[in-house]
Amino acid sequence: MHLALPLFVNQPRATTQPRGTRILMKHCKLLSFAVLLAWSLLLLAGCGDPEQKKQAHYEKGLNYAAQGEHSAAILEFRNAVRIDGRFADAYFQLGLAHLATGNAQNALQDFERAVSVDPANHDALLHAARLLLAGNQHAESLQRVEKVLAADPEHLEAQIMLATITLMKGEPERAAAVVEQALASHPELDRLHLLQSQIYLARQQPAAAEAALQKALALPPADIGKHRALASFYLNQNQANKAEAQLRQAAAAFPDSPAPHLDLAVIYAQRQELDKVETSFADALAAAPHNPDIYLRLGAFYREQGRLEQAEAAYQEALTKTEAKADIRAQLADLYFNQRQTEQAAALVEQVLQENRRHPLGSLVQARLLVNEGKNDEAITILSRLVRDHPRWGEPFYVKAQAHFNKGENELSHQDVEKAVRLIPRHAGARTLLAQHLFQQRDLDGARNEALVALQLQPNNFRAAIILGQVFQRNNELDEALQLFTRMNSLLPDNLEVLHNLGVTHLARQEHREAATIFEEILSKRPDFTPALASLVAIKMQQRDLDAAIERVTAQIEKAPNQADYRLLLGELHLAGNDFDAAITALRQAQELDPAALRPYLLIARLMTETGRTDEAIAEYRALLAKRPELTPARMNLAVLLQQKGDDAGAMAAYREILARAPNFAPAANNLAWLLAHEPKPDLGAALRLAMLAKEQAPTDPYVADTLGLIHYLRGSHDLAIRQLSQAAAALPDNPTIGYHLARALRAAGNKKEAEEELQRTLQLDNDFPEREKAQKLLTDWQQQTS
């Protein structure tokens, strides 16, 4: 609003004058001239023209930027461009301010806006080009550089950018021509010689590259970066002694810089000259005793050497050297987590995330803590953000793979761990998890290779060693398996998993006495270790001594009365001896101890049917549920009995009622998925969702894996089917139905020989099973096709 300066002189009064102005005019004679002048200046300030206001905001923004207050500068530059949307200089300065705060995306938009308003703004074009180049958008970056050169062919920064882009695109000859043109005008510019050295290296001309670096070093200004570039060149040429000498020269020329000492520490670490590494860190600290980054790097060095107390001390010292503590606390939290000091790690992570809720390393350690607590879904939410924001950082992919693996989401886990291995190929944990996936998928050669790599990277990686031993077992390389597990047992005498695998190897070698001794040793140390008792029972059953097997399980139940698996095992043994009442008693006890376990329901239902008591049992459960509808185990038994009787509609209704009350109840989800998959017109989508729900809740249950695998097979996802069915078959190798399903999936995936072998193995089992006739006919058909 423009105001005439003589606001209060006597003028003809306008009839449309605002009321406030009339009141002010009425009393103006009472005001001194000084007060009137102050009022007029105040009004002028409040209603200045837009040109003056935008310029005022722009000047304030420049002042804030000069003082390093970039957030305040951003606000002022934004105010300026709101007033004038064609204020090119303000857009450019806004881009610089965003760049200073690390917001490259907004900075690029601002530089592009500046260019759209003022196409001759070469600085904005070149800044945009640099950001595009950093994002590997070579063509877009080149386009902007060429605009500058079209207007000014001698523009030095544009020439340097053009040479850089063409070099990155693999066009060193074109880059060389551009640099030579620039050197003709600027022969004493050290940057051009540095760039020329990179071009010579790309052209496989190391002597010329060294000469260019030496030329750059001889030119002003004195810059430690040139010394370090020359040292880096020597290292890449495997001339470590020259690199060391160059860095010592840099240290003498720049005594206040820690950089050459830190570079020397890297060289000495590669040579394993650890005393010299520590000396170099001491020299770096002498040059810059208050630099927290030196302590961080020293802490990392100590961690690599396993000197964890010294690493912790270095991180703690770093905290005293800076006000910006988030990065250091995150490193310290990561150290504590790896030492299993989870409470200390969690406390530090909380502080880090209070300062920056999206701190990368702080978020990663938080996710690790959640995985450690079994909160895999919460961890995956955090890790999904991390892998999206940092797609070249391998560690979040690995932790995410662990979380999916814990949930039984093997396909997602496999995808993530493969990305982790590509990004961090020397990560022993990622290699081990990949070996585990390949083993479960029956890719024994792949599992062997990954386990061996993991052991090379981390010789004490017992998980990788176990996988390798299990590969030996599966390949019938029993001497190698025995040797490996014997050595592991000598190194880890208290590790029951290793000891059990040693026993299993003896069992596979038909060395029953040695195997039984080992399994008894395990049970003496841990009475509730189910695999050991199951292996003892397998020995006694091979010896056809059912009574001894029952006696042994009964004795172990007294030592571990709350172990549901033992009651289940006892029930199965009684079932094998046709003692149905004793079997039902044991299975009921197993249900009470573990209501979510699927196997007891199936066995009880089968028993009820075989003993002709199905209707009686159904009536009993219906009466009970009329009084206690919330009893999920009772309703589950009812549903299974209805299913066994052939009342699929009634069974499905009961399973749906269970899931309405307990949406995550795995047995009901599994059985309903199975029934849906076997309908005349199956809803395989609904069946898959239920099977995945069951898998998430019971990731290790082989019956759940069998259901999911079968549904994958019916949907045509044969590789996914093989993964699930292989897991089920590994857990229940004597279950012929699972073997039949696996054989069909292998055949559908094109693995004809392996499918035939699996079906032959299945048909050789003693067990009778509903699909035996179909399996026999299928094998005959396959053999005829092969012949």
TrEMBL record:
Domain of life assignment: Bacteria
UniProt xrefs under PROSITE patterns: TPR (PS50005), TPR_REGION (PS50293)
Signal peptide location: none
One function term, GO molecular function aspect: mannosyltransferase activity
InterPro entries: O-mannosyl-transferase_TMTC, TPR-like_helical_dom_sf, TPR_rpt
Repeat positions for TPR: 88-121, 292-325, 462-495, 496-529, 564-597
Pfam families attached to this UniProt entry: TPR_11, TPR_16, TPR_19, TPR_6
Family matches, as Gene3D superfamilies: Tetratricopeptide repeat domain
Keyword Cell division included in the entry's annotation: no
Keywords: Repeat, TPR repeat
Xref: SUPFAM superfamilies: TPR-like
Name used for this protein in its record: TPR repeat-containing protein
Source organism phylogeny: Bacteria, Pseudomonadati, Thermodesulfobacteriota, Desulfobulbia, Desulfobulbales
